Amino acid sequence: MLKGKQKRYLRSQAHHLNPIFQVGKGGVNENMVKQIGEALEARELLKVSILQNCDVDKNTVASEIVKGTRAELVQIIGNMIVLYKESKENKQIKLP
């Protein structure tokens, strides 16, 4: 589990990132979770955008992705989800 200080640090790191995934009308599917998992392994920190036409509540979307990828939810801000997962091979982010 991330501590408050670590979440603050990750939020500051994620501020300038652009979302690389979008959740739309179909909601979250298995393939999307797999791709997000692979992207997390490569980047450790990423944003997922929830589109206006998404039928599913953003908290549900976040929990489905977190459950599927075993990532940490850093924050949900507006229609943006920030996720963090420590990489096994290419660790870049050093948490405080």
TrEMBL record:
PROSITE patterns for this protein: CRM (PS51295)
Domain of life: Bacteria
Entry-linked InterPro entries: RNA-binding_CRM, RNA-binding_domain, RNA-binding_YhbY, YhbY-like_sf
UniProt keyword annotations, A-Z: RNA-binding
Domain CRM, chain residue ranges per copy: 1-96
Signal peptide: none
NCBIfam families noted in UniProt: RNA_bind_YhbY
Protein name: RNA-binding protein
Organism: Cytobacillus purgationiresistens
